[in-house]
Amino acid sequence: MKGIILAGGTGSRLSPLTKVINKHLFPIGKFPMIYYPIAKMRECGINNVLIITGKNSADSLISLLGSGAEFQMEFSYRVQEESGGIAHALSLAEPFVGSEHSLVILGDNIFTDNLRECVTAFEKQPFGAKILIKSVSDPERYGVAEIKDGQIKSLEEKPKSPKTNYCVTGIYLYDNQVFENIRKLQPSTRGELEITDVNKEYLQSSALTFDILNGWWIDAGTWEAIHEANQYLWSKAGLAFGATVCHNLAIQ
Fold first, then answer.
1. What is the value of pTM for the model shown?
2. Radius of gyration of the chain (CA)
3. Which of 44, 70, 83, 229 could form an S-S bond across to 116 if both were Cys, CB 3.0 to 4.6 Å?
């Protein structure tokens, strides 16, 4: 199993600071934001990780993370020259993944659930994809999964009238067919290759499964979310989570 962290994008919702700093370097609790998905990779036994970022922030990320040796991991890097969407960024990982399965985490997703069991189960799955979903109070802000009889019935991107409260988080597991699925896509009205369309390809092939996140989760892509994340990380429960991150990354 290979690990992929997507840490690019323009961070327009966090402008003007993101004109000079990649949002994944913003402090959340005691650590830069990107430490959290890295810790989750290591927690479930994935030590070989590709970090995909934009050309304006590659130097900063490499300066912070280096080869990964500090974390007893191995990091590789790819640069997304222009913002073309999450699926486009993911397509850059094809040489890195090869014939293996991969765990993909968006770098601004911070969560407490341990993914080890989910990853272990998916490694035994011969093909397909798995998404992680979470019940939220504002599903219209996200991709939404409609669940019926224990299966995904439909996926909608930012619907005005969501059919459920289950948002699709930025945590995905894919077989290597994902790259062929990306090649089938056409750009959306935003001019980007959408990860929701990738997941729909799997859904149409009856090859998309899901797990539900039960713990705390946030998409820290807005100032409000960053404030909420920091409130949690400085709370009693959040400090305990931060201690786990320290342990997972072998930070003393």
1. 0.94
2. 17
3. 44
